[in-house]
## 1
Amino acid sequence: MSAPEIWSNTRIRSTPFTSRIEAYGVGAYTVYNHMLLPLKFVSVEDDYWHLKEHVQLWDVSVQRQVEISGPDAAHLVQLMTPRDLTRSKVGRCYYAPLVDGRGGLINDPVILKLADDRFWFSIADSDVALWALGLAHGLNLNVKIFEPNVNPLAVQGPKADELMSRVFGDSVAGIGFFGFAHLDFGGHPFLVARTGWSKQGGFEIYVDNDDLAGPLWDALDEAGRDLEVRPGCPNLIERIEGGLISYGGDATIDDNPLQCRLDQYCHLDADIDFIGRDALRAERDRGISRAITGLFLDTAALPTVRQRWTVRQGERRVGDLTSAAQSPRFGRGVAMAMLDRDCWEAGTRLTVDSPNGSIEAEVTAIPFE
Ligand code: THG
């Protein structure tokens, strides 16, 4: 029996690149931020090898921007994240957890500082604008909050520098990791950042001009012919191996950023005011009881993880598996799981209940080595 289709409708937004990726042949979509996100082109494994060897164009329009601007913008942005942004700089990107009053993870965006009083939150899959609007209303802040028409196009893979410099010129090389600059294409300045949801290197172009979106895609496609450029998308195998968590899947509002191993972005002792500070400090002092952990799975056939799978030590339930994929690099399954603290040690043997029966698993550190 084949899986049921997901039907499109006007609530599920398409993007300025949808016609391009469908002309090439997109194999599967998911819905993310009420918008289409491609998940597969040739096959997840073929896409994986191509991403690691060449360069891909990703329609990641689903990474919506929430713009916060105005006299109270910097204050509101800092209230929303435990990452200390007091010394943040215009022209830089900051990966930052957003938390609620209980320390629960609301989202894990990349924050772009466009000006001292203007920010973009490049969000994962949850309605951050509503949270920000509620805070601004409740606290009577002088800010403007909206979702601009910006559709990010990622250029990812080891040949991304070469391809980008062919289209945008040599100044691409001057953009440092998590920096951004405005570069010309077709007479329009595009925000180009050295970021992206893979560990293969590359850029993200924040396409804020619908008329130039198609021509930009085509220019990258043509300039990259000899580099074997092709459409791609966030790759399940590559991002699990690299330890990139997917909000909504691996982490939800019931988890805090310490459990999600985002400690390095939580400045709990900094002299800053943010929502959830007391809860996160208490959680740190208590010691987290569970955390996202890597698992190797001893299996050749791995069904799709549609619901979390129970992870056991003997008969005792010790957590949930949240994502899994067959890794060509390791020759076995790789997975992310939220596990109780007494099973974090690498090498611990566990059992996973998949819909196709139980699978033997071994705990390992993230990223996978
Ligand atoms: N790019 C942009 N927006 C995004 C994503 C992105 N929004 C949704 C989602 N991805 C947000 N989540 C992440 C998770 C990890 C990273 C970026 C966005 C990431 N992390 C680096 C790493 O783990 O190696 C470290 C970053 C750092 O140290 O500052 O890149 O991909 N625009």
## 2
Amino acid sequence: MNNLTAEHDKVGFFDSGIGGMSVAREFLKLRPNADVFYIADWDFCPYGDKDHEIVLERAHTLTRKLLEKGCKLIVVACNTATAVAIDSLRATYDVPFVGMEPAVKPAALHSKSRVIGIIATANTLQGRLFRETSARFAANAKIIPAVGEGFVELVENGEQNTDRARAVVSKVVEPLVAKGADHIVLGCTHYSFLKELIAEIAGPSVTIVDPAIPVAHRAASLISHAN
Ligand code: DGL
């Protein structure tokens, strides 16, 4: 199970919708010839405020579908599914999993104001991964969590820069900036598609931290040969 996945092996990604494409597209930049399967679980989107049992069951169902397709590496390209299901997935299936981590660490290392905003779904912010990472860096920085209310729906509707998108995003981002955040962590893969708008609303003194790239690098590092 710890063997590296070979370059010709299939790699599976899943998310509640198109959010995880933010990770898959970075992965494909690194491994352009990889054989990628992507599942958007639209019938159950959004995951962010669903019962944990449902998200857990969906994570297992989608993983089994990807394994049936022959995937040898699974990227849980969803912070919510990672928060709810990654331990259970790793304990159940004999393939490597890469999940999304709340990127509080790099933000805490670079923050000058020592105030960090993290925007994620309710389920992610209630999860063990977020609680543990926040506690680990709480001595270095004050971490302010915020639910990205309505963000997933904007992205799924292809609204990245409409007046409505601006209003929905401002409502969440402006209070974080007002509280002194100089870093805002994107804790949901859908939010990558709102990154420019979030950055514009937050202003030039705020750094937006998006874990899509490091997670894609981690997945690529598990492929044995560069393409
Ligand atoms: N893109 C997902 C995440 O990273 C799911 C968001 C949702 O479905 O609410 O959390």
